[in-house]
Amino acid sequence: MLLARALRAAAAAIPAPRPLLPPPPRRRLVSALQPRAPALPASAPAPARSFWQLGGGGGRAALLRPRRGSAGGVSCGCGGLHTEGDKAFAQFLADEIKEEKKIQKHKALPKVSGGWELEVHGTEAKLLRKVAGERITVTFNINNSIPPSVDEETPEDQKADEQEPDITSTPNFVVEVVKDDTKQTLVLDCHYPEDEVGHEGEEESDIFTIREVSFQPTGEADWKDTNYTLNTDSLDWALYDHLMDFLADRGVDNTFADELIELSTALEHQEYIKFLEDLKSFVKCQ
Q1: 159: left (phi over 0), alpha (psi -120 to 50) or beta
Q2: Is the overall model pTM greater than 0.90, yes or no?
Q3: What value, to the nearest 5°, has the Cα angle with vertex 191 and ends 248 and 148?
Q4: Mapping DSSP to helix (H, G, I), strand (E, B) and coil, where does residue 243 land?
Q5: Which of 61, 203, 223, 244 could form a disulfide with 55 if both were Cys (CB 3.0 to 4.6 A apart)?
Q6: What pLDDT, in 10s, does the model give residues 83-105?
């Protein structure tokens, strides 16, 4: 009995075995800690939401609509970015093109009388004429040819029966006179002043003026700045009148200047409509 008691006391002195603990968790990447969306079954279609569906809940609508100028894209098969703003922009351009075509006066460019031949390269136009061994070329560009509006009257102040003034293109133009037996070209830089320039006592004033006169080598595309250029601001009126008569004898007179304005205005309007069409195609979803 004493032996059994001793064995029980020895057994109680031996510590009980500890239970096995699970190994400590390994450190995971930050991306692995973020919640993932539950996987969809293979047969389930991908969810699709439009801005109108997202914005149907009262105060949440303002938060879910894309801000002005944001990249709130609209699904499209072309792979480009298209927004609701682009869609509205394209519709506005379509309406604007329709209105501009309604008021377009010339479907084809008008001709200039006097036997002038017309060449158009984008926004640049050339009028060419040959007269008794001379070649006269008039070149102009419609870019920046619309004079700025000086009317301070706001649309609210304008009366309902009053029509907006017609937009007129008055470009600067360069006249080049080349003689067959010379290697120099007489170049006259002309422009339309805001007010008609004329001399006292004259019945008819000139609607264009000569600003600069110079000689340039014939056949060279780039003019040389080292060649002397005559500015007419301080020129004797007698010499200036002879220069104007020189141009008039070669068909560059007030009638020509009027027809050039009509031609330039038609070309500018044509290019403006083409620009609107290109812009609509650029922003519209194809």
Answers
A1: beta
A2: no
A3: 145
A4: helix
A5: 61
A6: 889 999 999 999 999 999 999 99
